Amino acid sequence: MLKLAVLVSGGGTNLQAIIDSIGEGRITNAQIDVVISNNKGAFALERAKKAGIESKAISPKDFDTRDDFNEALYQELVSRDIDLIVLAGCLVVIPEKIIRAFENRIINIHPSLIPSFCGTGFYGLKVHEKALARGVKVSGATVHFVDEGTDTGPIIDQKAVYIEQDDTPEVLQRRIMEQAEWVIMPKAIDDIANGRIMVADGKVIRKE
User: Which contacts (CB < 8 Å, 24+ apart) does range 67-72 have?
Assistant: First the structure.
């Protein structure tokens, strides 16, 4: 059984999609061991509580230095023997110590088709604002493993979503969540939990 730690910063809609997918059998051989937020007021913590999942707020504001915060987060994850860290709307930059300790065991959802509209500064509504400003006709979401770069890790899955003429960033954000993020993130977790993918030469290989 794959032990998950889900890291969140806000409302937790992707967390809810994971919780629902486990409950409905779309994710098998996996369970959420803990939900961790850097934001004590994150509604995601309430979602976890309602689902009977242990939740913790580990905020940089409670530590003297960023290194102290990073160490506390590292110790929390290691002490639980976490198999897979899921970044589900997590705005914390994951320290290299954690990335090295959990190589190819951290996944993230990004609200565009990487390599478009990704990298430093591209998060949340900003991604959709840039996509609409550029006038692209198709956007979507990407699930990828996390490495030391920003949105540069091996891509696990992607799903395209068409942009409509009257879209606002908020409308596009919601459509991409519903049609892409809430579909491919649970699927990626299920694939990992059931040994269907591996990483080789910096790319994700799907096993037959």
Answer: 70/95, 70/97, 70/98, 71/97
pLDDT digits (tens, 9 = 90+) for 71-117: 999 999 999 999 999 999 898 899 999 999 999 999 999 999 999 99
- CB neighbourhood size of 68 (10 A): 12
Distance in angstroms (rounded) separating the CA atoms of residues 34 and 48:
8
pTM, entire model: 0.94
List 2, 21, 110, 173, catalytic entry: 110
Q: Rounded to an integer, what distance in angstroms lies between the CA atom of residue 20 and that of residue 12?
A: 12
| DSSP category for residue 190 | H
Q: Mark whether 144 is an active-site residue.
A: no
For the segment 15-28, the average pLDDT, to the nearest whole number, is 97
